[in-house]
Amino acid sequence: MILSEDHSESLELSKKAQKRMLKMARLEERKIERRAKEKATRKEKKIKRAEKIAAGEQVSENEGAQKRAKLNRVKEPFAARVVLDLGFDDKMSDKEIISLCSQLAYVYSINRRSPNPFRSLLFTSLNGRTLSRLEKLNQAGYKRWVGTEWWSEGYDRLWVQTLEEFTPRDGEGFGDATSKEDWAKDNIVEKSPEESLAVPVSQNRVVYLTADSSEILEELREGETYIIGGICDHNRYKNLCLDKARASGVRAAQLPIGRYLSHLSTRKVLTVNQVFGILVKWVETRDWELSFYSVIPKRKFQDRGRGREPTDMDFPAKTTVMEEEEPAL
Ligand code: SAH
């Protein structure tokens, strides 16, 4: 019964859908072939290596060990926190949620591979379809991402709830401060960057990144917290993150793209992983221009007006959305 139902449904598939299914089947087949080839090559390498060892020859570390060593080589972390604000679950289509989750995986991978990773990656407001999607991916692989924290609560818990639980060191008290918040403002900022990641955050050390702010981010500082809006919206919502930043009383700033790539329009909206990639590259190089070009392919800036330098006239809409091809997981 079920079979015949399925059959009749497939008969009704449009030509386009049939073509798509065929293409997917072909891709899947190629993937299986590729995997089999890779497996055979690995096996061959293993045998050759064993032969060399048996013959008393010197061998280098195997590939897996080399990869692990590369990931674990001595790192110089940057003592700042990046928050991925996932509080926009209801603003995205299912497809956009899928893209966003790939971008999050990409963010994690960029940080893990960097010689100067951000010390803390915090994902806040994890709920709804974003949570379901992450649970499905790689058997909830996100739970095994090293050095990440996941909250179902919003990022304001950084200063609201933690502050409630927080008590100053023995004998210090709250001094002359009229409230705990006032006390925190004066005291927490003076702590070393490492320490300030472990205690409640004062709001004036938090920056929400958004292309809609008129403020420009000049540099990243240890001890500060940078929020990236975890949303893939194909530019439907203007000022979404800017309004949120204002409502939560934190600063907002845009990346200084315009300064280096002035032929672009005033608003340049990047994807989550592009923004994160730029931040990491800046930490590594302290050079914005280099960081932009290492993350956004140059051709993206030349999409319009092929064969000549683009001018402002090429971007009358005042918005350039630089959506990336979906990153591989
Ligand atoms: N409509 C959303 C745009 C989502 S783009 C909004 O209101 O911001 C995903 C996130 O990347 C943004 O929330 C922002 O944190 C970051 N971002 C994108 N382009 C940026 C830019 N030019 N400067 C700073 N942050 C940017």
From TrEMBL:
EC code(s) of this entry: 2.1.1.221
Family matches, as InterPro entries: MT_TRM10-typ (IPR028564), MT_TRM10-typ_sf (IPR038459), tRNA_m1G_MeTrfase_euk (IPR007356)
Catalyzed chemical reaction(s): guanosine(9) in tRNA + S-adenosyl-L-methionine = N(1)-methylguanosine(9) in tRNA + S-adenosyl-L-homocysteine + H(+)
One GO CC annotation: nucleus
Domain of life: Eukaryota
Residue ranges constituting the SAM-dependent MTase TRM10-type domain according to the UniProt record: 66-303
Alphabetical keyword list: Methyltransferase, S-adenosyl-L-methionine, Transferase
Name the record gives this protein: tRNA (guanine(9)-N1)-methyltransferase
Species whose genome carries this gene: Multifurca ochricompacta
